[in-house]
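Hi R.,

As promised on Friday, here is the backbone we talked about, encoded as structure tokens. Could you run it through your design pipeline when you get a chance and send me back a sequence?
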């Protein structure tokens, strides 16, 4: 028996308590702490994409929002 590696595990939403599949990647950085080219990533399900994005945008941290590879958002 083998344990699944992190690459085998499904990507889930970064919102607290949410275990829904991630379909969006919100790339961000805090300019006070990170170099301009450094990006951190929060994953979001369709339901939490707005609230997580608004949180980052209000602080001036949001840099890009992209579809997670293999997610149904790439089909639209």
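Update: got your reply. Pasting your designed sequence below so it's all in one thread:
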């Amino acid at each position: 028996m083998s344990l699944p590696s992190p690459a085998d595990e499904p990507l889930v939403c970064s919102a607290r308590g949410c275990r829904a599949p991630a379909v969006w990647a919100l790339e961000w950085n805090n300019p006070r702490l990170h170099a301009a080219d450094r990006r951190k990533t929060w994953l979001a399900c369709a339901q939490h994409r707005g609230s997580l994005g608004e949180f980052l945008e209000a602080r001036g941290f949001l840099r890009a929002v992209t579809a997670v590879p293999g997610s149904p958002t790439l089909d639209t």
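One thing I noticed while checking it: Residues 1-5 have pLDDT under 50 and may be disordered.

Thanks again,
M.
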